[in-house]
Here is the input.
Amino acid sequence: DAGITQSPRHKVTETGTPVTLRCHQTENHRYMYWYRQDPGHGLRLIHYSYGVKDTDKGEVSDGYSVSRSKTEDFLLTLESATSSQTSVYFCAISDRSNTEAFFGQGTRLTVV
Amino acid sequence: AQSVTQLDSHVSVSEGTPVLLRCNYSSSYSPSLFWYVQHPNKGLQLLLKYTSAATLVKGINGFEAEFKKSETSFHLTKPSAHMSDAAEYFCVVSGSSNTGKLIFGQGTTLQVKP
Here is the structure.
């Protein structure tokens, strides 16, 4: 597996609380992504980064923010968690555009 | 804008019979295309990729896919299904030329019956 670590792997949180998920890579890849996976929707892009401090929104970015202060770390924050954000979150990395991405093992988040 | 449609949400085959998972794409430029596999409660693994070289692409575990520009298709095939092939499969298209975004299809669940 590519050197991608997501933490935590599982989390249960209450509605209205902030939550931060971490993605750490050891591959020195330029691009990093956060996706969420929900039944019937495949994977949908939340935010992505194309360099340190360079981020942009994906198709389902509402309620989420990201930060990338170092090449190796990409943080996803749910500002005020809602039940609709219960999902499995995947981090991915790639070293250039138009090529494959490598995925972490996922974080299962439950908002109660 | 780029998009991808997987034509079957669920495919069931018997062990030892051929597998066909269908994917059509839409792209305003020459895309890169990928198939990923996800076994239950696991992450995603790259099966194969097309990046404008040979149109017939061979991947891991005996899978292959053919890029057909005239049909805007990238169907995944395997001559003989194995029980371990039971998983969810995703067809993916590159989102644009400079962001590296990947656009996923909704997935096809492959069931393999003994």
